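Below is how a single chain appears once it has passed through the pipeline. First comes the sequence as given, then the structure the pipeline wrote out for it. We keep one example in the README because the format questions we get most often are answered faster by looking than by reading.
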Amino acid sequence: MGSLLNLNGRTLEIGERLTPEQIQLLAPMLREAVRDKSYELLPLGEDVAAYLRAKRKRLTAASYRSYEGTLDKLARDFPDLTVEDFEPPTGTARLEQFLDARWGDGAPGTYNVCLAHVTDFFKHFQRIGRLHGNPTLNIERAKKRDIHRSTFTPDQRRSLIASAESLRDRIALRLLFDYGIRKGALAAVEFRHFDHQRKRLTIFTKGQKVRELPLPDPHLWMDLERHILDVEAKPTDFLMCVVKPIPRVGLRRFPKRPMSSTALHMWWHRRLNDAGLAPKGATGTGRTMNMHAARHTAGQRLLDATGNLKAEQKLLGHASIQTTADVYTDWDVEQLTASLIQALGEDD
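Resulting structure:
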């Protein structure tokens, strides 16, 4: 068994249970430690690891990392406590202080997600009999602030698509602006996912959901077919594959390697720069509209054209129409004015 660290002249082994005295010595180090599995050496960390093993089958990889990130901090902040030490009301007070110290000054949505992680953790141990009550039940969720959702104007959308020199980029921009697909779904698109006969695209999106998306625009299919011929694309090649400049060779495509999230972020801001939509000196962090604004634009555009909220829900793939109504749509002052004029005119 490999050694982990040296503590006061004694080498600790991986998997060895720490004494209370050793925990007190290690606590400051563990609080500042980088993300690793050292939290599992703590009493509460052992329970976190057991809980995560039980949850693994029901969580996506991204959700697993999110749960682990929250509970990692819980174990490190209470290095000398066990699950049983969180019985309410004492445990409730401890957790309120923990959540407030860690996320109280952050976004309400982040606070609520972390509260949900902690709630489910203690619910698990209440269910298996190690707790009599769940200490999180009386902790209030943070109230969400009003969010200003930005969308691109029709002229900005046209400018972005027109300024894209490559067919690949125009296809990607249409998928973002007209069909509202997410950045992760765009990265996962392979040429075999396009159904040329039925004019549909299979997308793999958030939460490992698989959806079929109708693509009725003939211009997109014309660009796609030309692009496939130009690059001699194979069915399993990625649409948004890695493209790198090679000295004395020029740009080289790596069709089996999809762009990373960072690479797509940089690609997006190059498109904004090419269209003249990025402020001078913008670095892509807070001074320009992010890629998700294209998704909001697609949903708002469909709603404005049809007035059909259900169609927008289906386009964006929301399980609940409430999400579509509350988060992804916005009636601006001009639209409200037009609606009021119509309503008031009916009474004349």
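The first helix runs from residue 20 to 32.

See the next section for the split statistics.
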